[in-house]
Specification:
single chain; 148 residues; alpha/beta; five-stranded mixed beta sheet; 5 strands; 40% helix
Length: 148
Amino acid sequence: METIKFSDKYFMKQALKEAQKSFDADEVPVGAVIVCKDKIIARAHNLTERLNDVTAHAEMQAFTAATNYLNSKYLDGCILYVTVEPCVMCAGASFWTHISKIVYGAKDEKNGYSKISDKILHPKTKVKKGVMEKECSDLIKKFFEKKR
């Protein structure tokens, strides 16, 4: 039996679908999926407005769903796909999950973790930047233009 290897672009498209849900709900449009062994084990999007909770970022929701799915507090061997560079809070949480890799689309010049330090991430966490950057960036820009 042949194993199908999905691409980073495939999984980022799934994260973008989550971001669109945020956009449609008038939330900052950030979406995330967590993948383990080429299978999506968690899908999430921002819920900060709906839950009235500043910690309800897409990544935080995804971490909770993935750890529940695996029945483990660690996400070794998992990949987080997120449409926008994680903030310091989400990067810090990723440290504690031991997630193996983070793949993000658009850079967050104002609030991204890399503005502070790349050392926030777990030393074993790999990072891939700029996957479907234009699509991810365009959705965020469209949201904030609509707000003005």
